[in-house]
Structure formats: structure tokens, C-alpha cells
Amino acid sequence: MKFITTRHFIFSIGLTLLFFMGPLESTQAQISRDLRNIFESMLDDLDGDLRLKFEEALETDSSIVKLSREQFKRFRQSPVNPFDGLKSAAVNQSGTIIALKFELPDIRNRSVHPLERQNSGLLASLRPAVKNASKSSVLVYSNNRPVAMGTIFRDDGYILTKASELDDTKTIRCKLFNSIEMRARLIEINKEHDLAILKIEAAGLIPARWANQSASIGNFLLTPDPFGNVLALGTFSVPTRSTAVGQQAFLGVQPETTPDGVRVSAIQPGTASALAGLQNGDVITKLNQIVVMDSSTLVKAIRDRAPGDRIEITFSRNGQTQSTTATLAAREYSGAQAARFKMMNRLGAVPSQRYDNFPSVFQHDAPLFPEDCGGPITNLDGEIVGINIARLGRAASYAIPASTIQSVISKYESDAKLPRLNVRTRQ
Q1: What CATH architecture applies to the domain 116-245+333-427?
Q2: How confident is the model at residue 90 (pLDDT cuts 50, 70, 90)?
Q3: Average pLDDT score over residue span 133-151
């Protein structure tokens, strides 16, 4: 990170932070909704008086936070402070009130290069693939602004959407593919999956047609809107798993890159690697048939898995190729590490209000906005493989697989929380 030693300091990592000493300018620095979400996500990890300062900014709708010298120093060392360069900023003047002005880069209006995957020409060429699925999608409004997408799952007006984005459940409206807007009632919230069931007074709607098979690693995925447009193109990157906050899959080796692969220079006792029989000096060449050329490839392959996943490890020992299977364990982050990881992952994107701790999601890299979540995601054949549920970070979004969605719907129907259809909704 670059640290610019001028009166205003800019730390260019997702947020832009300026700080200065002395009287504030009279202009009002209004807080954006996206920045408001980031402030709110920081609150639980801040000390009492620092938390009060950010709560005050939220209450006054201001992106400027005023701190004393002592408070500034504590925020500078806080795990939720993502500005590494800020730690070298000297504050020597006695009695100085420091004003921190937070700004977000203009991610929403960023120009897309013609050669990028999200360029308008490429997305337009993919419209035929989502022609049918788009009619099962709706726009969801709350407080007179778009907050999410929705997925029609029954022809008698039942819709799934992302629950945590609904600001005011009394003002929900849905816009259909034919541009008709209708009032919607909140029927049920499933906190576990962050799903809400809405009901509009309509019949003959086109429900989602779920794919018979789940997507596979490397498959292209499309996010449609109700009007036949493709909002984003992504790639299926991590299989379905649970995402527990503060946990990371852990193999327990100290890797060292060599010309032949990744040499194990140390093994932590009792970890997945030790239980699988790996030894110091083994050279790992493959993980689940993924060729491991260097330490970064090994680390990424492990981090893309979840605690409890089983992986096949191919390795060389004394010139002979062998293989073993390891069950990855969970490494708990400390409170400070978890807070730091959470904040860093939010930078460079506009993440959802709830973006983690889901029992069953797969990961893809489509650059969604929070209001794009809740709607269907399809494969290139137009089959709906799931529902987008969260934008996680710079290159990661989550979707709930179709099989999980169908199980949730079936459970509500069996519990009589939804009326049964006389004719089963087509799948």
C-alpha cells in the first residue's frame, strides 16, 4: 500500500481515507448506503468509545469520523482498520482532533474495458440462454428503491428473495418480466439461509425450472434480470459447502516451492497432514488432480475447500509416487484475525449486508451488487442451478444450490407453512 506524505493522506485499498488536523470544512460529507453497510459491519469489532464515534457518523449521515489522538491511535491498531499505511502516520500535536473522511471508489459506475468478461457486447450475446429463466426472476423494492432480486418458485405468486436486504417489510413491491409492479406480503423468513418468502396476488406465473444436475468447477454461470438481460457472467469456482464464520480449512504443512513441486518442510502434529501420513521431505505434486507447482497454488487449493472436505494428495517420497487422503480440519481465527479478514475481504467490492455463515452455498466469481442477489443463476443451457445469495468480496459471490432450495421449499410445504398445489409446480 502506498503512503502519501501530504496534508491529506490517501490509502488506496478499496476505501479511500483522508485525514487532516484542524477545523473541518463546512461541506457536508454524506454517507453512501454502501459505506453505511461497511460502518455497520465494523461496529461489533470496535471498542466502546470507537463504536460510539462510528454510530454517531451513522446517525448524522456523515462519512467523516472525528477522533481524539488516543482514539485515532487505537483505531490505527484495530484489526478492522484496513489501511496499513495509516499505522505509520505520526500524530504528535497535543489536543488535536483528527477527522477521518471515508470514501468508496466508484465501483458501480466503473467503465468496463471491451476485452473484459463483463463487457456489454458479450453479455448481450448471451441473452438467448436466459430467455426462459429471466421470466422466473423479479426485481424486489423496499422503501421505494431496488434492494434485491427474487425467484418465482410457484405459479400462484410465491417468490424467494434475500431476507437481509429488505429494509421495510411493509413496503415490498415486485416488478415482473412484463414490467408490472405488485405489492408483496412477507410470508416467512428462513434465517439459516437468509431467504424470505414473498407472496404477490397473481396466478399463471412462470416458476423456476431447476437444473437436474449441479454445476461443476469451471462452468460458466449467468445472472439474468426479469427483462432478459444478463447482469453478470461468472465461473463456478468452489463446490457446495458450509461457510462458518471465523473458520478456514487447514492441512497443517509448512510448504516450500521446489522445481518438482511443493516440499513439506514441517508438519504440525495432530493436523490433517500428520493424520494422512505425510512426512517432512515429501513433495506434493497434486491435490485432487490439480497440479501443484508452487506454494501459492497449494495454499489456494486448501483455502478453496471447507473444513471436513476430503482431498486426495499425490506426493513423491524417496523418488516414488504415492497418494493419500486427508480430511481437512478447521483452523479457528482469533477474534482479531477474524475481524481483520472480514474487513479486508469486503474491500474492492460492494458486499451484501449478510455475506457469510451459510449452511450450503457454492462460490462463483460474478461481480454482483447486493441488489443483484436473491434471483436465479443459470448455466449456459439456461437451467437454473441456484439462487444468488451474497456478494462476498473482490472476486467471490455465493449462491444456494437448486437442490438446497428445493429442500427448503418442500419442508415449508410439508410443515403446512405454504399451501400445497393441486398440480405440482413443474421442475
Answers
A1: Beta Barrel (2.40)
A2: low
A3: 95
Sole residue written with cell 429442500: 407
Q: Which secondary structure element, helix H or strand E, spans residue 201, and what is its range?
A: none
The segment(s) of the chain belonging to CATH 2.40.10.120 are 116-245+333-427
Torsion sign, CA atoms 36, 38, 41, 47 = negative
Closest CA to 392 of 417, 363, 414: 363
CATH topology of domain 247-332: Pdz3 Domain (2.30.42)
**Per-residue confidence at 233, pLDDT binned at 50, 70, 90?**
very high
- CATH 2.30.42.10 in the chain, residues? 247-332
Report residue 26's pLDDT band, with 50, 70 and 90 as the boundaries. very low
Amino acid at residue number 272: A
Single-letter amino acid, residue 13 = I
Nearest 5 degrees, angle CA 207-CA 210-CA 211?
155
Q: Compute the distance between CA of residue 79 and CA of residue 86 in angstroms, rounded to an integer.
A: 12
pLDDT, greater one: 49 or 76: 49
> Is the distance from CB of 356 to CB of 242 less than 8 angstroms?
no
Closest among 111, 82, 62, 70 to 17, alpha carbons compared: 82
Q: How many CB atoms lie within 10 A of CB 422?
A: 6
Three cell numbers, residue 176: 415482473
Q: What is the 3-state secondary structure (H, E, C) of 154-201?
A: ECCCEEEEEHHHCCCHHHCEEECCCCCEEECEEEEEECCCCEEEEECC
Measured in residues, the chain has a length of 427
Q: What is the pLDDT of residues 275-307, one digit of tens each?
A: 889 999 999 999 988 898 888 788 878 877 777
